[in-house]
Structure formats: structure tokens, C-alpha cells
Structure to design on (1421 residues):
């Protein structure tokens, strides 16, 4: 008891000590210090000679010292008599000094606050500007204005003086209101002038010292004389940038008589001038208060005079100051850890971010990195990294800052989520560790098992004293001879390996490993210094890459020689592509350090990069640099110009932009020119940015011609052809709704109806369009709106043999008129259209209220010219026009087009008033048909003859689809990737590019590329790494270039290979307990858990292998014993046959040549085995596979046949070992004369046994003449010269080969083999039905008996029996021998004068059947 009491006392004392020790550690954790700025300086405008104050104040619990920086340099205020620091930290300048050559006070100021031994923070920056000397850049001048007009008095001053200007009239101040406005530049605008505005005006600069006045200018107001005054622009809007929340005034001052009407548009839409924030003042200027981000855009001021229209555009940019989305937070950390300070901001333009530590700018290095473009990562913390970190962000609208404190704790202090407190739970936790408070000893045998250029793999053994379970490990590493360590932890408890990534090539690193248990970290291992391998000396990136746009189609790129790289630079490769396009073009540049790329697109942005090449290959690519080619005048005119006569005095002109790619710059507007009459006359020009314009004030019943051109900053492009339109003699009435259409006819077909109508009888009422309704039994199911020019419509997708009701009514701005109704029944499917029907009579029946006039002649000579992949120009001639083909009336043309794919495609239509039309928005590489119809008033022609054309190809606009990846069965290092062509190929696919990588975020040029021809939709990729994530993308190409890539498809290779394929696939043997590192290195499964297994697994594998071997030996012995059961007489017959064969073959093989000896192929009959002559394939050496991809370097070269035959036979045996069906006896008689084989005997190098049914032979089928062991020994003694691979051999040579295989001697020559294709599976290998022909007595060779079944008379037939008894458990490969010549066979049969009668044959067959049953029994057991 005393001893037990003593132990309890010691335990209690230990608990007390540990509890108080833990409490003291927890209480010693340093807390974060509150340290920030309460007031920061702001941008200030100072006046020369006056004082100014820049406010700044910092607050903290500790003593704070404040200093000031100007333009990045600390100010020495002690020696400055004009500048001093106030008690709160603000900077006071008593007298601002500013002159033309001396501006000491202007600049950027920053307040810096410091706490001794803790850290420093910096405020945001503030700019101090000083107003210059008051002076006028221009003086106001006297002006005269009519009553009600608008005029402007100029007063031009510098930008900083503009806020200090004011105006006086006759010595008194001018009141500024909505009629009298002062512009931002200082000018005074007086609108709606009256006599009270007359007087003497002067501009005064006040508030920057002594006031300064301009010269006086007289403002005169005259009465209205009625004389027209041309529209004049006094002041238009200009591009301006303002900060959100400020006010802006966009001036638009126009002068003219009559007074012009000014309208504002915003991004093409009219401005709501009644809004509270948007107001038009001063006769036309737009004032916007309290700006928001939505106010940014393009503003247009349009002034409409009596005959002219002027329009001026200006862009308003709204700046948004930076604002923090995520601020950096205070952080606890320990040495060797990696931390990240987050800082995410928003603003417009996007703010830039820079980091500071204790007032000094952080320069990115190996240990201080900027990640995700805004976060700061610190690697391998050391004690000196403690302090305050600041994120400073700025843009054109301002700058802000935020700070966070980093405190580094000792290694034995836990990182607190909250400050620790000595609670009971903590005491219990400490007491639990007291039972065995020991920490692990140092890990043993720390070695670098794999060293590469950029990573090192470390392995180690358990510590001698682990003192617990779930041991974790931390690897500390640093650059050699530096004290900044980084740490990498193992991924799971008990794991004793780790891979350190992202190292520098050819650099020494020091590693040490520390084990940790529940009590904390243990002892450190001894330092291990390892150097990464040197990297192949490829060129580095070319520095100082500069790109300059030389012209609208050329760019000059220059660079310097790479600073790194071993060896001479052989060439440079310049890669460039359009921004946003994936396909790159490249150009080789030899030795030169600059290159001019020509043939580029005008006003297009390109990205360029340069790669240097030396003898080792391509180096590191430079970063992409972008440039835009210079703009140019448009190279094409606007498209599809149409004229619409609105009334007797106005015409609407509409058009579409020039074709894509022909604008050649930023569109500034369109120039519309028009003139009266068809001949040359003075034209009027109107500028607009819209796609339509109404020309008013025209004369009644006159012809006007129009043309349109597009303009950029470089000038105007080509104009369209002159187009004519005639105004109405009288205006149509729109004070009432239109009347009922005068007629409505319906032509029913099977699945559609063609509807035709005529306008209302009263043509004096304006019709703006028609509304048609139709449906089954009711006309209100479907409604379509039609153009007022349209006179027919095709209703498609109707049901056959169904009754439809149709209604049509005209409408204008006053409303809809009375409808007209009609109904019809679609034709049944079995009732085709009668070709004798006169559709003209159908549409012009006597009941029509207003019959159509005689139709016009249709257009002729319709031509369709392809302009691009989506644009076709359709042109035609009109025989009803004069010879000069000038259009002088109000006729218009309707173009319709469609494609026949799919078959039910609907027509699309467009109207035009010219003799050509550009159809856009077509599909690439598609056949279209076009036809044209002309309409004049109520007269329309029939459709013209169709013109057909096919659009050009373009790059595929969609990626290949249905991409799948599957692993090849039996070989997980090989995958098959399958896909389908892209939906929008836009041309014939000429090939595919397969990209695959282990990093989905890698650059495109870093992915592995495999090309495939266009007619293939599957590809095999070999030599992949096991248990690795691969990403696959496919890209299609046609003659125009590359399409988009498919989405990255993730596929993970299996973790391990099958045990029977591991060594053969890898080309090396793996013994249990001795893993061999494969050549793949990274990604190999060697040394991974679950692959090599433990020591117990190795013993189990050895036991299984030995057991299988013993069973195989027993099976061979039993087979040999069964073979000896043959009769003694039968053995004699075989010896005789062997001698005859040996003598004949030995003489024959020297007489025959490779051309004479061709092995016969076999045709195995279903009911009886016989040979049938067939036509021989004419191809002597056919290609077995047709793949467009060359084999990779990993592919194993084909072995010579004399080295591979033994392996092939053994593999065939193993392949068929799993077949459990019975092996029937097969008798295969040969013709004495070689027949024409079905398939030429040839080697088959690649047949996947996983795709061959059980019962088929794997790789090769050998047909051997049966022979006894004595026969084989006799044959083996005959010397023979070697044959070339693939050369046919005689029967004796094949017997010798068989003998060598059976005796497992080194193989000689691999004979040709035949690929036998049975007519029916398995049936061709069934037991044959033996029949004896009475017309042809059977004669036999000395081999096993068979029956000649061929019709021709032969002296004898040789037979071959498949299977040998001294091989292992399965039929071996069958060799196809060549049949000897007739003479040689006859001589051989004469020497062996032996025959079999019917009884002997039956006995022999029964004996063989018994042997096969025994063999099957052994196999199945």
C-alpha cells in the first residue's frame, strides 16, 4: 500500500507541474495589437502663398510615432521652417511655394506610423496640387445673337483655374440658371436670348490671390430678320472621366435659324430628359448629377435644323474607387510554415495591388510570392517575418490600404483558434499524456529515393522508439546554407515517404525529418543534403520583347538574346494568333532579333510570343504580348440599302453595316448623301451613327437618289451605288384604319397552304402591315405579322387532310381594319397535286373581288456569288427595266433562299430596292438555292429560276463530341479514346488533334499532342502512368484551320496491372521482394502500397507458383505415359514413314526455292474435313493495320521471327488454358498438289486474345505432320541451312521445328502461319464424319490414317493431327506446311509401301478418341 500511495503522490505532483506549465504557456501567447489610422490624407488643391494642412492621425494602445513621406522620401521636418508636424500627426505648410521653375510643395504625400519593436504601417497616398498664376489662354470676344437664339462667350483658362472663374455683366455678377450656363471650361452660354441679356461681359479669376479680369466683350441681341442661318456647332461634348457620385455637364451648343432642336441619346437609345438626375440646360447641354456606374457609355448630341442634321458623340467614363472585398486578417503561425494573406478588391478601372511589410515594399522572391494576382504567400516562415503586412490598392479614382499583423509562436506552442485558458478539460488532456509523455526518437535511414530536376522523393524507416501509434512526420527543408526552412507533412499517419515539389534544378537542399505522436514532435533526423539534377540546358525566354504596329496589315516584333541557355541559338520561332482564337501560326526566324509579320488583318488584335531553339530543342516561351494593327478606311460599303417612301415629303433610308472584317477600324458613323434627280447635281450630306435615317423636306412627286458610306478615323470607305426613289404626289391618309383586303386566295397542298391577297380597294388610306391568323376550325390559334409590301405567305407544317380557317386584316397606326376570311382543306397524303391544275386560274377565279393585274416578268440571270463562309451576294437583271437597268419607280425585289439540309427547311426572305442583295448569316460549307421576285404596286412576278451555290469552308465552330476514354483490357497502360465529329464541322474534317496532360490548367503548348487523320474516330495512346489523372481534349481541323477544343475529360488510369502481364508489358521481370523501378519514373506503381505487398504476400506468391509448376510437370508425365500405350506395330509404321519423309524432304528442300514452296491454306468443311482450292490473295505482304499515327518511341520493336517463335507458342498455350470445352480430334488431309489458298500464309503480329472466342487459336495455328519421338530425333540430325523469316519451308522442316519446340531446344525459324477463318464458329472444329469413297480406294501415308475426300485422283494424302501429348495442358499452335510437288510425293509414297484397311482405321480412330478423352480429363482437372 505504501508503494502504491507513493506512486499516486508522484502522479499528482506531475499533473500539477504539467497543468501550471501549460497554463503559463497559454498565458504567454502574444495578443494582436490594435493599430490603425483614424484619419488619412486626401488629395488637396492649394493656393500659392497660402497655408495648407494634410490631415493624418494613427491610434493604438502603444506609443505611436508619425512621420511623413513626399514622393517616397521621408521629410526632415526638424530643419524645415515652412513645414511642421502638428500634435495629432497632421502636416502643416505655412506658406505654399510655387513658381514656373520651383515647385517644392507639389507632389505625393504619405503618412507613416510606427510602434517601437512592433511594426510600421503606411497611410494611403494624397496628391497636393497648387493652382498656377491666374492668366487667360483666350479672351472673350463680342458677339451678336437674334432674339430666342443661343450664343457662347469664351473664357479659356487652365484646368486647375476653371473652378475659380466667374462672370460679370456690366460690373455685376451673372446669375447662372437653366438658361444661362457656365461650361466646365469656363465659357458662358446664353440660350433663348432676350434684350435684357445685352451688355458688357467679362471673365474674372478669383480666389487664387489677387483677382484678375479679362477684357470686356459686348453681347448684342438683334430682332428676328427672318433670314435663314446655317446650323453651326459652337461647343460639342468631349470624352470625359468622372468618379462615381460626382456631377458632369456634357455641353452641346448649337447656333442657327430656325433654332435647332437638340436631342440626346445614350448608347443608341433616347435619353429620358425628364429624369431627376438628367437635365438639359443652356439650350442643349446635358447635366447628370450623382453619377452611377450605369451612366457610363456613349452619349450623342443630335441637332436637327431645317435641312441638315448634325450629330456629335462623346464617351462618358465613370470611375469607381477601389473597395475591399476581402481584407488581410491577423495571423498566428510557427516557423517553417507557409501562410497566405488574402486581399481582394474591386473598382473601375481594375485596381492594382502592392504589398508592404513594416512600411517597405515586398519584392516577390522565392519565399514571398504573389498568388492569384492579389494574395501574398510567405513560404518557410522565420522569426524575422513578424510584423505588419499591408495591402495597398489604387486606380485612377483613388487608393486605399488595409493591414494585418503576423505573430510567430514557438514550435512547442499550439496555434490557438482562441486564446488558451487553464480549464479542467485542458488539465485532463495534460494528465492523459502524462502516463507516457515520451516523444518519438529520430526517424531512421532518411534517403532520397528519387531525385529529379524539380522534385525529390524522400523515404525513411520508423524511429527506434515510436512511443505510440498514428505517428505523423514533418519534412523540413531549406536551400543549402540558408536558415529559412519550409515544412511538408505526410498525407496520412504512418506514411513514411513524401515528395517535395517545385524545386530549382541543379540546387542543393538540406532535409530533416521529425516524427510526432500524441505528445508532440520528437527528435529530428540528421540533416541530409541532396542536389537536384541539372536540367537540360534549353534556352530561356527571350527578354525585352517589344511589338509595334507598322501598318494596318503588318507588325514588327523585336527581342533580345536569351540570358540563360547552353549552346548556340539555332533559330527563333515566332508564334502569333488572333486574340480569342486557339489556333496559332508560326514563323521561323534565323539568327535575327527582329521580324516583321505581314498579311495580318486590319485593326485586329494579335498576341505574339517567341521561343528560342538550340541543339537540345525549344526553350522557354516568352509571355504573350498583344498589339492591334492600325486602322484604315473601310474597304467595303454598307450592305442591303433600302429606300422606303413614307409620304410625299420624306423617304426612309435603311442599311446594314459593311461585312465583318471590312470595317478596318472603329466606326465613327455613316455618311448619307442624297440629291434630286438622276443626273449629277449638288448633293446634301448627312452624318449619323444609326442604321436608318429619315430624309424630310423633299418635294412632292420627285425622284431622289441616295448613297451611303461608312467612315472611320482614317476616312470614308467606298459608297454604295446611287439608288432612286420617288416621293408620292399626295400623302396617304392615316386618320382612319384601313379597309378590308380586297381578296384572299388559298392554295392548299399536303402539309402547307400558300395564301395570296390584294390590298384594300381604298388605296388612299395608309397600310403599315397585315396580320394573318389561322388554325384548325378557328383562325385565332396562330398569328403572324406581315410587311405592308408582302402579297403572299406560305403556312407550313400543317396536318394533311385537315380543315383550316384563315383570316387577314390590314393595320396602321390608327388600328386594325376589318378582316377577310377564307378556309381550305389540306390535301390527303394519298392525293398528290394534279400537274394539270392551272394555279393562275385558281388564284384568279370569277369570285375574286379585285383580280390581280397581269404579273410582271420575273428577274433573269440570277447569280449567287460567294463572298465568305456566311455571306453570298445575289444579283440579277430585270427585263422590264431600261437597258441601263436604272430603277426609277417604286418597285422592290424579294429574295428567298434556303438549304435542303434538312429537307423541311423553310425559306427565308428579304426585300431590297436594288438589283443585288447580300445575304448574311448563312451556314459554312452548305449548298443554298436562291430565287428572286419583283413587285411593283399591286403587280408581282413569279419566282425566277433558282441559282445554287455553296458557301466557303471555315474553321469548325464546335468541338468533337461524345468523347470517351476506356482502358485496354489486360494492359492498363494503354487507353482507347473515341469521339464523334463536331456538330458544326463547317467543312470536311481533315484531321484531329488529341491533347492530353496530367495538369488541366497547363498551357496549350505544354500538353502532349497526338495527331489523327480525319477518317478515324478512335485512337490508342500507350505508355501511360498507372494510378494517374489524365485530362484529354480533342480538336478538329479542316482546310481552314483548327476548331475549338472539347471540354477536358478526366480519366484515371488503374492502380495496378494484372499479375500475369506486369513483367511482359514492362519489358522487365519483377521478383517478389525485389521491385524494379520502371523507366517511367514518376507515376510508376513500384513502391506504392498495394502493389509490392508485404513479406507474407511474397511467400504466398512463391507457394502458388511452385504448386502450379508441380501440377504442370505431373500433367506432362501423365501425357507421356499415355502416349506409350500405342501398339508396337503402329510404332514400326511410324518409323518407316519417318524414314521415307526424311529422305524425300532432305532431297526436296534443296531443290525447291522460296518461289516454288507456298503453304496451302485450309478450308475446313462443316461435315467432313477436306481441302478446297480457292483463289489466292494477290497481295504478298498485306498491311495488317491501317493507322495514321507513327509509333511512339515507347513502342517495342518487332523481334525477329526466329527469336520469337518459342515465346509465341508458349503464349498460345497459356491463352487457351482457360478453355474448359472438350478438345475433339481433328483430321486434316492435304492435297498432293498445292491448291489456291483462301488466305496467304503470313505472320500475324498483333491479335488481342481478349477478343477471340474460346475455341479459336491465339496468334498462330500450326498444322503439323504427326511424327513419333523417334521420327523427330531422326529429323533433328539432318543439317539444314537457316531460312529467311517469312520464307516457306517443307513439311520436314516444320517437323523439325516441332521437334525442337517439344524438346525445348533454342528455336530456329518461325514458319509462315495461316489465319484460318472457319465458316461457322466451333462447327468447323467439330469431330468429322468419316466416309469412304468407293470410287477412290484409300491410300495412306505412314502418318496417322485419314480418308481422301477430293474428287481428283491422287496417289496419296498426307494428314496432320493437331495436338501433342508432351506439351502443357492445352493445344499448341498449328503450323501450315507447304505441300511437296507431285513427283516428290509419289516417290515418297513408293518408298513407304504401306496401307491401312478399314478395320485398322476404325481401331486407330477409336484409340485416338480415347487418348483425347484422357487428355481432356487431365486438362479439366
Amino acid at each position: 500500500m505504501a508503494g502504491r500511495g507513493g506512486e499516486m503522490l508522484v502522479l499528482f505532483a506531475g499533473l500539477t507541474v504539467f497543468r501550471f506549465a501549460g497554463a503559463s504557456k497559454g498565458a504567454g501567447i502574444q495578443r494582436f495589437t490594435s493599430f490603425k489610422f483614424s484619419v488619412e490624407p486626401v488629395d488637396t488643391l492649394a493656393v500659392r502663398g497660402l497655408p495648407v494642412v494634410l490631415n493624418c492621425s494613427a491610434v493604438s494602445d502603444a506609443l505611436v510615432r508619425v512621420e511623413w513621406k513626399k514622393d517616397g522620401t521621408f521629410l526632415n521636418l526638424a530643419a524645415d521652417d515652412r513645414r511642421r508636424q502638428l500634435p495629432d500627426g497632421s502636416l502643416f505648410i505655412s506658406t505654399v511655394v510655387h513658381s514656373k521653375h520651383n515647385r517644392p510643395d507639389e507632389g505625393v504625400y504619405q503618412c507613416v506610423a510606427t510602434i517601437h519593436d512592433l511594426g510600421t504601417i503606411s497611410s494611403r497616398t494624397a496628391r497636393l496640387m497648387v493652382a498656377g498664376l491666374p492668366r487667360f489662354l483666350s479672351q472673350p470676344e463680342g458677339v451678336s445673337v437674334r432674339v430666342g437664339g443661343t450664343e457662347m462667350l469664351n473664357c479659356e483658362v487652365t484646368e486647375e483655374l476653371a473652378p475659380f472663374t466667374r462672370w460679370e455683366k456690366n460690373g455685376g455678377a451673372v446669375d447662372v440658371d437653366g438658361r444661362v450656363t457656365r461650361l466646365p471650361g469656363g465659357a458662358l452660354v446664353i440660350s433663348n436670348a432676350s434684350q435684357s441679356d445685352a451688355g458688357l461681359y467679362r471673365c474674372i479669376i478669383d480666389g487664387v490671390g489677387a483677382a484678375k479680369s479679362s477684357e470686356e466683350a459686348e453681347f448684342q441681341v438683334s430682332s428676328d430678320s427672318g433670314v435663314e442661318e446655317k446650323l453651326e456647332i459652337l461647343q460639342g461634348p468631349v470624352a470625359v472621366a468622372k468618379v462615381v457620385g460626382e456631377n458632369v455637364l456634357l455641353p452641346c451648343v448649337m447656333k442657327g435659324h430656325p433654332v435647332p432642336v437638340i436631342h440626346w441619346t445614350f448608347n443608341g437609345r433616347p435619353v429620358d430628359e425628364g429624369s431627376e438626375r438628367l437635365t438639359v440646360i443652356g439650350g442643349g447641354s446635358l447635366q447628370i448629377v450623382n453619377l452611377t456606374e450605369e451612366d457610363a457609355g456613349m452619349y450623342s448630341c443630335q441637332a436637327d435644323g431645317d435641312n441638315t442634321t448634325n450629330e456629335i458623340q462623346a464617351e462618358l467614363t465613370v470611375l469607381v474607387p477601389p473597395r475591399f472585398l476581402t481584407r488581410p486578417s491577423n495571423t498566428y503561425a510557427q516557423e517553417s510554415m507557409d501562410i497566405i494573406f488574402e486581399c481582394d478588391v474591386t473598382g473601375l478601372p481594375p485596381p492594382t495591388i502592392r504589398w508592404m511589410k513594416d512600411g517597405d515594399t515586398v519584392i516577390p522572391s522565392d519565399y514571398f510570392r504573389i498568388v492569384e494576382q492579389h494574395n501574398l504567400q510567405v513560404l518557410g516562415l522565420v522569426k524575422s517575418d513578424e510584423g505588419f503586412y499591408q495591402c495597398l490598392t489604387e486606380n485612377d479614382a483613388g487608393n486605399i490600404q488595409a493591414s494585418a499583423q503576423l505573430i510567430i509562436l514557438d514550435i512547442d506552442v499550439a496555434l490557438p483558434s482562441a486564446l488558451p485558458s487553464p480549464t479542467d478539460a485542458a488539465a485532463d488532456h495534460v494528465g492523459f499524456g502524462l502516463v507516457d509523455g515520451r516523444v518519438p526518437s529520430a526517424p531512421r535511414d532518411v534517403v532520397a529515393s528519387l531525385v529529379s530536376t524539380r522534385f525529390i522523393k524522400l523515404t525513411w524507416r520508423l524511429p527506434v522508439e515510436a512511443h505510440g501509434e498514428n505517428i505523423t512526420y514533418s519534412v523540413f527543408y531549406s536551400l543549402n546554407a540558408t536558415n529559412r526552412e519550409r515544412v511538408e507533412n505526410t498525407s496520412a499517419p504512418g506514411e513514411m515517404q513524401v515528395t517535395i515539389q517545385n524545386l530549382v534544378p541543379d540546387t542543393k537542399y538540406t532535409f530533416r525529418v521529425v516524427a510526432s505522436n500524441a505528445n508532440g514532435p520528437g527528435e529530428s533526423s540528421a540533416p541530409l543534403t541532396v542536389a537536384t539534377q541539372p536540367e537540360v540546358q534549353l534556352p530561356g525566354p527571350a527578354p525585352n520583347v517589344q511589338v509595334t504596329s507598322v501598318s494596318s496589315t503588318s507588325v514588327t516584333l523585336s527581342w533580345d538574346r536569351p540570358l540563360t541557355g547552353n549552346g548556340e541559338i539555332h533559330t527563333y520561332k515566332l508564334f502569333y494568333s488572333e486574340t480569342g482564337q486557339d489556333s496559332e501560326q508560326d514563323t521561323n526566324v534565323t539568327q535575327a532579333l527582329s521580324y516583321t509579320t505581314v498579311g495580318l488583318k486590319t485593326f485586329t488584335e494579335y498576341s505574339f510570343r517567341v521561343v528560342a531553339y538550340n541543339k537540345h530543342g525549344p526553350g522557354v516561351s516568352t509571355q504573350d504580348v498583344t498589339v492591334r494593327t492600325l486602322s484604315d478606311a473601310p474597304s467595303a460599303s454598307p450592305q442591303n440599302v433600302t429606300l422606303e417612301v413614307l409620304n410625299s415629303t420624306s423617304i426612309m433610308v435603311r442599311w446594314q453595316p459593311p461585312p465583318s472584317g471590312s470595317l478596318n477600324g472603329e466606326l465613327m458613323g455613316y455618311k448619307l448623301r442624297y440629291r434630286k434627280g438622276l443626273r449629277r447635281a449638288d448633293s446634301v450630306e448627312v452624318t449619323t451613327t444609326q442604321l436608318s435615317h429619315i430624309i424630310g423636306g423633299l418635294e412632292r412627286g420627285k425622284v431622289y437618289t441616295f448613297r451611303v458610306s461608312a467612315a472611320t478615323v482614317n476616312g470614308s470607305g467606298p459608297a454604295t451605288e446611287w439608288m432612286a426613289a420617288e416621293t408620292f404626289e399626295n400623302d396617304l391618309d392615316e386618320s382612319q384604319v384601313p379597309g378590308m383586303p380586297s381578296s384572299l386566295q388559298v392554295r392548299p397542298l399536303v402539309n402547307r397552304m400558300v395564301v395570296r391577297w390584294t390590298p384594300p380597294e381604298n388605296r388612299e388610306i395608309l397600310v403599315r402591315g397585315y396580320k394573318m391568323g389561322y388554325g384548325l376550325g378557328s383562325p385565332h390559334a396562330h398569328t403572324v405579322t406581315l410587311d405592308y409590301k408582302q402579297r403572299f405567305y406560305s403556312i407550313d407544317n400543317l396536318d394533311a387532310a385537315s380543315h383550316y380557317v384563315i383570316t387577314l386584316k390590314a393595320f396602321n397606326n390608327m388600328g386594325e381594319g376589318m378582316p377577310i376570311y377564307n378556309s381550305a382543306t389540306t390535301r390527303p397524303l394519298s392525293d398528290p397535286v394534279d400537274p394539270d391544275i392551272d394555279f393562275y386560274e385558281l388564284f384568279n377565279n370569277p369570285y375574286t373581288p379585285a383580280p390581280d393585274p397581269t404579273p410582271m416578268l420575273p428577274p433573269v440571270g440570277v447569280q449567287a456569288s460567294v463572298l465568305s463562309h456566311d455571306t453570298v451576294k445575289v444579283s440579277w437583271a430585270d427585263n422590264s427595266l431600261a437597258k441601263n437597268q436604272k430603277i426609277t419607280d417604286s418597285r422592290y425585289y424579294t429574295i428567298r433562299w434556303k438549304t435542303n439540309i434538312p429537307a423541311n427547311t423553310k425559306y427565308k426572305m428579304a426585300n431590297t430596292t436594288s438589283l443585288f442583295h447580300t445575304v448574311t448569316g448563312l451556314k459554312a460549307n452548305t449548298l443554298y438555292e436562291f430565287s428572286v421576285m419583283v413587285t411593283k404596286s399591286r403587280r408581282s412576278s413569279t419566282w425566277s429560276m433558282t441559282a445554287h451555290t455553296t458557301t466557303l469552308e471555315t474553321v469548325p465552330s464546335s468541338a468533337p463530341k461524345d468523347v470517351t476514354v476506356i482502358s485496354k483490357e489486360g494492359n492498363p497502360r494503354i487507353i482507347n479514346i473515341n469521339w464523334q465529329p463536331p456538330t458544326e464541322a463547317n467543312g470536311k474534317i481533315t484531321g484531329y488533334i488529341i491533347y492530353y496532360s496530367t495538369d488541366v490548367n497547363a498551357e496549350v503548348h505544354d500538353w502532349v499532342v497526338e495527331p489523327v487523320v480525319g477518317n478515324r474516330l478512335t485512337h490508342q495512346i500507350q505508355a501511360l502512368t498507372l494510378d494517374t489523372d489524365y485530362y484529354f481534349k480533342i480538336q478538329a481541323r479542316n482546310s481552314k484551320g483548327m476548331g475549338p477544343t472539347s471540354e477536358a475529360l478526366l480519366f484515371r488510369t488503374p492502380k495496378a496491372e494484372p499479375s500475369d502481364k506486369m513483367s511482359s508489358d514492362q519489358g522487365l521481370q519483377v521478383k517478389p521482394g525485389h521491385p524494379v523501378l520502371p523507366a517511367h519514373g514518376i507515376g510508376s506503381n513500384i513502391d506504392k502500397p498495394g502493389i509490392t505487398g508485404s513479406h507474407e504476400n511474397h511467400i504466398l506468391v512463391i507457394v502458388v507458383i511452385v504448386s502450379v509448376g508441380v501440377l504442370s510437370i505431373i500433367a506432362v508425365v501423365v501425357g507421356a505415359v499415355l502416349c506409350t500405350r500405342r501398339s508396337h506395330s503402329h510404332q514400326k509404321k511410324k518409323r518407316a514413314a519417318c524414314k521415307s519423309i526424311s529422305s524425300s524432304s532432305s532431297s526436296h528442300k534443296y531443290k525447291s526455292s522460296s518461289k516454288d514452296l507456298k503453304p496451302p491454306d485450309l478450308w475446313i468443311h462443316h461435315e467432313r474435313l477436306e481441302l478446297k482450292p480457292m483463289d489466292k490473295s494477290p497481295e504478298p505482304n498485306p498491311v495488317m493495320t491501317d493507322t495514321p499515327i507513327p509509333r511512339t518511341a515507347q513502342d517495342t520493336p518487332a523481334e525477329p521471327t526466329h527469336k520469337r517463335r518459342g515465346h509465341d507458342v508458349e503464349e498460345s498455350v497459356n491463352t487457351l488454358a482457360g478453355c474448359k470445352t472438350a478438345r475433339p480430334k481433328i483430321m486434316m488431309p492435304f492435297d498432293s498438289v498445292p491448291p489456291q489458298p483462301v488466305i496467304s500464309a503470313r505472320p500475324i503480329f498483333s491479335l488481342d486474345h481478349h477478343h477471340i472466342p474460346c475455341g479459336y487459336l491465339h496468334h498462330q495455328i500450326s498444322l503439323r505432320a504427326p511424327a513419333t519421338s523417334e521420327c523427330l530425333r531422326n529429323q533433328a540430325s539432318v543439317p539444314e541451312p537457316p531460312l529467311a523469316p517469312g520464307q516457306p519451308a517443307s513439311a520436314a522442316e516444320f517437323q523439325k521445328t516441332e521437334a525442337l519446340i517439344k524438346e525445348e531446344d533454342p528455336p530456329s525459324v518461325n514458319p509462315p502461319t495461316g489465319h484460318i477463318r472457319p465458316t461457322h464458329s466451333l462447327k468447323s472444329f467439330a469431330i468429322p464424319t468419316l466416309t469412304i469413297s468407293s470410287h477412290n480406294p484409300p491410300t495412306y501415308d505412314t502418318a496417322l490414317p485419314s480418308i481422301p475426300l477430293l474428287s481428283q485422283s491422287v496417289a496419296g494424302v498426307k494428314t496432320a493431327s493437331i495436338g501433342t501429348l508432351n506439351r502443357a495442358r492445352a493445344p499448341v499452335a498449328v503450323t501450315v506446311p507447304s505441300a511437296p510437288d507431285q513427283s516428290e510425293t509419289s516417290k515418297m509414297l513408293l518408298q513407304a509401301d504401306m496401307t491401312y484397311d478399314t478395320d485398322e482405321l476404325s481401331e486407330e480412330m477409336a484409340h485416338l478418341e480415347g487418348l483425347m478423352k484422357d487428355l481432356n480429363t487431365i486438362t479439366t482437372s
